[in-house]
């Protein structure tokens, strides 16, 4: 054997040695990354599914099995304080709405656009804005309700004030974090009116829908207390309190879900922070309960998929949705459900697809009806767009002026759904 050959062999074996070391080193780094929870298991499997482009790689284990100690995780992550305040504010506001929900008389009045609003809507908005202003005084707020009507109607104002001043979380530290009680009824009106931001593409702006699905709330159905934070037009934090959804993420979706007479086993908070995944936790009455990571369910067969839509035919074209579902091969009837509870339900894999088809050319969707749900579904592995396949644009004011309709589905099938939506709408 020549000296050259011996040298070559030595070089080759030292290469193999170094690549082995490199392999072992990468393995250790990967294991450390998993255990330090910087990448949670559901997100890893979602990343895997994006890499392979296959829905099937999102395994069943990615769903709802990982318990996160919310406060521990929050402490080190971006928007931790915003998330904690937002969830507690929603939990407290939901407590108020539940009191009204169980009353026969809900203090319902009609707004200028003829839609209903209750003492629950006004009270919840006051409590949420007061918590946000205590923590983030210079942030702007886009909220659904305004106090003008209450300034004219003192008995109604007083009814709301009674509710607001007596609704607290049974946790002193949580109450303190939310800034404590509002001073008096007049201060409450001022606070309600602080939700009058025009919205837009610059700075930190919160969106609040104190009771989304007010009609559902009045009917005894689903409703949601919704809160989102946008930074420069992009949703960073989203929280949905759904008092009438089951706590169990795996409970099958049905129109009458959560219509039991008591609150036993129901009430859930969904939340998400951009880039940090989505979570569900039981809706409580004191501090925050433990959360679980949630992820959308992979659709392996369209014939087994389910889709949800609005109960109100005026809010979404149910005829067109039926045609889309049929063309996709969906065989189950739609699950009609009020409010952003639909977004939460598909995000945790209880349902698969959410279709919201415009009923009029002129209606512009409101940002508070979609901001939180949009982020929660996307962080759970879904895609949310309008009927043309464009992302919802929250940066153009109080409405989604640049979008028509909403289509939310697992990322792996979203293009397929949009293709069919366009075929059906093209035939109209
Ligand atoms: N024409 C039209 N088209 C689309 N959407 C509309 C329309 N009119 C109203 N709204 C908004 O719908 C919000 C309720 O959402 P959902 O339809 O999902 O729930 S519900 O079935 O109506 O309860 C509802 O929110 P809330 O007012 O908070 O209930 C409205 O902002
Ligand atoms: Mg709404």
Automatic annotation (TrEMBL):
Segments crossing the lipid bilayer: 21-41
Transmembrane helix as UniProt keyword: yes
Gene Ontology MF terms in the entry: 3'(2'),5'-bisphosphate nucleotidase activity; inositol-1,3,4-trisphosphate 1-phosphatase activity; inositol-1,4-bisphosphate 1-phosphatase activity; metal ion binding
InterPro entries linked to this entry: DPNP, Inositol_monoP_metal-BS, Inositol_monoP_superfamily, Inositol_monophosphatase-like, Inositol_monophosphatase_CS
Amino acids binding Mg(2+): 144, 209, 211-212, 369
Cofactor(s) required for function per UniProt: Mg(2+)
Catalytic activity entry: adenosine 2',5'-bisphosphate + H2O = AMP + phosphate; adenosine 3',5'-bisphosphate + H2O = AMP + phosphate; 3'-phosphoadenylyl sulfate + H2O = adenosine 5'-phosphosulfate + phosphate
Keywords recorded for this protein, A-Z: Hydrolase, Magnesium, Membrane, Metal-binding, Transmembrane, Transmembrane helix
Short name of one Pfam family: Inositol_P
Metal-binding recorded as keyword: yes
Enzyme class label: hydrolase
Gene3D superfamilies reported in the protein's UniProt record: 3.40.190.80, Fructose-1,6-Bisphosphatase, subunit A, domain 1
EC number: 3.1.3.7
Gene Ontology BP, a term: sulfate assimilation
PANTHER family recorded: 3'(2'),5'-BISPHOSPHATE NUCLEOTIDASE, PHOSPHATASE
NCBIfam families: bisphos_HAL2
Similarity section: Belongs to the inositol monophosphatase superfamily.
Protein name: 3'(2'),5'-bisphosphate nucleotidase
């Amino acid at each position: 054997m020549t000296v050259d050959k011996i040298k070559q062999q030595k070089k080759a074996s030292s290469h193999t040695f170094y690549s082995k070391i490199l392999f072992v080193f990468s393995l250790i780094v990967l294991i450390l990354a998993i255990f330090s929870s910087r990448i949670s298991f559901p997100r890893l499997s979602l990343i895997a599914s994006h890499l392979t482009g296959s829905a099937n790689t999102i395994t069943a284990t990615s769903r709802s099995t990982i318990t996160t100690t919310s406060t521990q995780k929050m402490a080190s992550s971006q928007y931790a304080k915003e998330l904690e305040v937002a969830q507690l504010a929603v939990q407290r506001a939901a407590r108020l709405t539940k009191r009204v929900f169980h009353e026969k008389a809900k203090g319902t009045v009609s707004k200028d656009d003829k839609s209903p609003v209750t003492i629950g809507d006004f009270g919840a908005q006051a409590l949420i804005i007061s918590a946000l202003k205590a923590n983030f005084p210079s942030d702007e707020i886009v909220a659904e309700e305004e106090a003008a009507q209450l300034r004219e109607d003192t008995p109604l104002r007083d009814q709301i004030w009674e509710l607001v001043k007596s609704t607290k979380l049974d946790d002193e530290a949580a109450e303190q974090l939310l800034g404590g009680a509002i001073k008096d009824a007049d201060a409450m009106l001022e606070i309600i009116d602080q939700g009058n931001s025009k919205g837009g593409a610059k700075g930190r702006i919160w969106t609040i829908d104190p009771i989304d699905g007010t009609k559902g709330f009045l009917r005894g159905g689903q409703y949601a207390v919704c809160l989102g934070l946008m930074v420069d037009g992009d949703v960073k934090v989203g929280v949905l309190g759904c008092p009438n959804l089951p706590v169990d993420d795996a409970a099958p979706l049905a129109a009458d879900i959560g219509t039991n007479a008591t609150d036993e086993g129901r009430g859930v908070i969904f939340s998400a922070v951009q880039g940090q995944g989505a979570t569900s936790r039981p809706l409580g009455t004191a501090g925050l309960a433990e959360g679980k990571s949630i992820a959308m369910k992979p659709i392996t067969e369209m014939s087994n998929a389910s889709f949800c839509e609005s109960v109100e035919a005026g809010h979404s074209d149910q005829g067109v949705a039926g045609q889309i579902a049929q063309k996709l091969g969906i065989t189950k009837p739609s699950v009609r459900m009020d409010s952003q509870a639909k977004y939460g339900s598909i995000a945790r894999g209880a349902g698969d697809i959410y279709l919201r088809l415009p009923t009029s050319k002129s209606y512009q969707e409101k940002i508070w009806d979609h901001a939180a749900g949009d982020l929660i579904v996307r962080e759970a592995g879904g895609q949310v767009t309008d009927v043309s396949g464009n992302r919802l644009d929250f940066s153009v004011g109080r409405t989604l002026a640049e979008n028509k309709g909403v289509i939310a589905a697992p990322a792996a099938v979203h293009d397929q759904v949009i293709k069919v939506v366009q075929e059906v709408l093209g035939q109209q």
